Amino acid sequence: MKISNQRVEEIINFIKGLNLDQKYKKEFTHSKIKNISYINESLTHSSANSEINYENLEFLGDAVLRLIASDFIKNKYPYMLVGERSELRSHLVSDQWLEEVGKKIEIHSVLIIGKKALRDKSAKATIQAEATEALIGALYESLTILEPIKDWLIPFWEKKSKEVLADPHRKNYKSALQELTQSKGLSIPTYKTIEIDKKHDNPERFFCTVYIKNQSIAEGSGKSMKQAEKDAANQALKYFEKNIIDK
Questions:
Q1: Which of the four pLDDT bands, split at 50, 70 and 90, describes residue 129?
Q2: 62 given a catalytic annotation
Q3: Is 195 one of the catalytic residues?
Q4: Active site residue: 55, 62, 87, 100, which one?
Q5: DSSP at 224
Q6: What whole-number percentage of the chain has pLDDT above 70?
Q7: Which one is the CATH code of 173-242: 3.60.21.10, 3.40.1080.10, 3.40.50.300, 3.30.160.20?
Q8: Where are the domain boundaries for CATH 1.10.1520.10 in the chain?
Q9: Residue ranges matching CATH 3.30.160.20 in the chain
Q10: Catalytic position from the list 41, 58, 99, 133
């Protein structure tokens, strides 16, 4: 796929804005058009080009991401149990984390998206996360080594891992709530979620109530049903922490 000079410049400037080691940024210049092509592919949605888009690089990026995240956890937390490592890694490679990284590097500013997908605001977060994962794959395809990609991502992981490990429930609020209610001989929590706003960018678009034994325990909200349920479960856990529940 032929890339215009304007697009080449756009990609070069984007790479310059990433916190990559300076010596690796030199691999993305006018003389390294093959590497520029990989990056361009990683930033192209299938709605804009059905043949050359980020899907293949996203697949590669997933494998690269899981490998270097595992290596980061092994080195950062050498005494952490395997099960705990797997749990932490799930947060460090999650769609939510990828979306956060995508926002930080402003990947939306260089994405090529078809008009129909561009109008679908509900897909914005997903596309950003997928493109960020594809970008990781493109960087590996270009550099052929993992170290500079890991070094680039470490600051993001440092922040996220501290956040997750500081939470006694490791952000898995629904699982924690179910374990708690079962330990107390209570029924499994049920969730009732409603959409209260059609605006996709509203952080309180969905409203959720969590019930235990048909009793409303807590409420939560989020921009997706999943996030609203997670928030409601978190609020329910806080409720239990403040109240003694008898069977």
A1: very high
A2: yes
A3: no
A4: 62
A5: S
A6: 98
A7: 3.30.160.20
A8: 5-165
A9: 173-242
A10: 133
How does pLDDT run across 103-120, given as a tens digit for each residue?
Answer: 999 999 999 999 888 888
- CA 69 vs. chain centroid, Å, equals 13
What average pLDDT does this structure show over 21-39?
Answer: 95
Q: Predicted confidence band at 244 (pLDDT cuts at 50, 70, 90)?
A: low
**Distance in angstroms (rounded) separating the CA atoms of residues 111 and 196:** 30
Output the DSSP codes for 194-215: EE----TT-TTSEEEEEEETTE
Region of 112 (left: φ > 0; alpha: ψ -120 to 50; beta: rest) is beta
Asked whether the beta carbons of 45 and 124 are under 8 A apart, the reply is no
DSSP string, 31-91: T-HHHHHHHHHHTB-TTT-SSSSTHHHHHHHHHHHHHHHHHHHHHH-TTS-HHHHHHHHHH
Q: Which 3 state secondary structure label does DSSP give 129?
A: helix
For residue 137 the two structure tokens come to 């794959």
- Look up the CATH architecture of domain 5-165: Orthogonal Bundle (1.10)
Look up the pTM and report it.
Answer: 0.80
Q: What is the DSSP letter of 218?
A: E
The answer to whether the beta carbons of residues 53 and 138 sit under 8 Å apart is: no
